[in-house]
Write a structure and sequence with these properties.
The structure is a homodimer. Chain A is of the alpha/beta class. Helices cover 29% and strands 33% of the residues of chain A.
Chain lengths: 279, 279
């Protein structure tokens, strides 16, 4: 039986591109919301999930940080996807036929130069990038285009009329691969591979608390790669800190750091340990 | 001539409640977007603005962190507003007449217990909390209610039928008061008052960089109250750090810390120094 990987969006979404990098042998299962993606793994309907966690233009996907804490699904992998937007049309449609261009508002906003160069095109917000290609094909619209991934064009049998029409090429999204905690095994450590560990913790609201918490990593030369703070519900103006650093939980140095951090933290949870993706 | 204070939303929005605390002598100027609020002060149409920066349930208003950097308007004050949601109706309307309840989706979501207790009420998403009260009054709807602030009920002459229907009372929003940089004067320091300083900085992407940056505050016993990271455009996986700490820029201790931080930072900007609001 083939395994499944849940992701948010329609078939052809950038999350599916990430899923093909992180779980290529799994059948992709598109779901409407991030909540449903986490739920599908928690309740065992899907074996794995792929979620976006941060983007180099828009920042963290804060909702997913909150879900990581709530659902407690371990992170088993990460990958980066360059967000390349394409103008996609029904087979044979030419530029001069296009009146409207559909896509998610964020994607429309990331292709401003393209719309400035083609002022006759009406920007039409749609709920999803790949979903806009699906809709074009289903409705047989020959006076419209959609902005989405190359994967979406392929899946729905549409044509790419203009490649890479995004303004900013430095547009990357980082994705996590998640599994059920019950199915967790300590990842076999591959020598020569760089690993990251992700943790979440809370601290007493005292002066220097965050500095002291970070000292448990810095004084052991563990490289912090990302810090994110989120509000702690029920304790106004206290925060949860999500930290990623380079290290494997089986390393003595990392074990010592986590023990030291546990001494300083009110709550500490390891969210996962996984091979660092190449940038 | 009376001064003006710009805010996002309709008259009666929670931002106007904050404006009445931070700039009570100014005439409130409602505007549709945060961008327009910053723009109105930058181009001199309004003297001041009040913007939400973080909420204890939803976290930071990340868009406004980006605007603080872009528009460079100094922060001159902060305040906290407890978010109290009320069921608001046309004068004389009773509970049993209500079929639909309008409000911003976030406000509807924050009153789930109320809707569970009143299952006949249809939740109807609207673009704004105070705007839903305005619309009820303009259209004379007697079979509907709106969820908004007490200020909105007063401004539009509507009735509060149920007070404080939000699920979670620990729901606070922190707001900043902004002014044009050209009109900036060093705030006269009131003895016995606690001040905060807000800064934004970038660091070289080297191990221990954030730890060393925070040491400039911690080793001088300056209390960090908030840290937020945002992506740095054009440098994938590098971050801007926004930090608030207790201290006045005229204190020698704070001056030393900022000089020390400037040594470590690639970019450092002081966003403002202002009296800390009482929690």
């Amino acid at each position: 039986m083939k395994h499944t990987v849940a992701f948010q969006g329609e078939l052809g979404a950038f999350s599916q591109v990430a899923a093909s990098q992180l779980a290529s042998s799994c059948t992709p299962v598109p779901l409407p919301t991030f909540d449903q993606v986490f739920e599908s793994v928690a309740n065992g309907k899907c074996e794995t999930a792929v979620i976006p966690i941060e983007n180099t233009l828009h920042g963290s996907v804060h909702e997913n940080y909150d879900h990581l804490l709530k659902y407690d699904l371990p992170i088993l992998g990460e990958t980066f996807v360059r967000i390349v937007h394409n103008l996609i049309v029904l087979p044979g449609v030419k530029m001069k036929q296009i009146k409207r261009v559909f896509s998610h508002p964020v994607a429309l906003n990331q292709c401003r130069h393209f719309f400035e160069a083609n002022p006759a095109f009406e920007r039409t917000p749609f709920y999803d990038t790949a979903g806009s290609v699906k809709m074009l094909m289903e409705q047989g619209l020959r006076d419209a285009g959609a902005i989405a991934s190359a994967a979406a064009a392929e899946i729905y049998g549409a044509d790419i009329l203009r490649k890479s029409i995004e303004d900013d090429r430095e547009n990357f999204t980082r994705f996590f691969l998640l599994k059920r905690r019950s199915s967790r095994k300590t990842a076999a450590r591959i020598p020569g591979t760089r690993y990251k560990t992700s943790v979440v913790f809370t601290l007493k609201n005292t002066p220097g608390a965050l500095f002291t918490a970070l000292s448990t990593l810095a004084l052991r030369e563990l490289d912090l790669t990302k810090i994110e703070s989120r509000p702690l519900r029920g304790k106004p103006w206290d925060y949860l800190f999500y930290v990623d650093f380079v290290g494997h939980t089986a390393d003595q140095n990392t074990k010592n750091a986590l023990n030291h951090l546990a001494e300083r933290a009110e709550m500490l949870r390891v969210l996962g340990c996984y091979p660092a993706a190449k940038k």
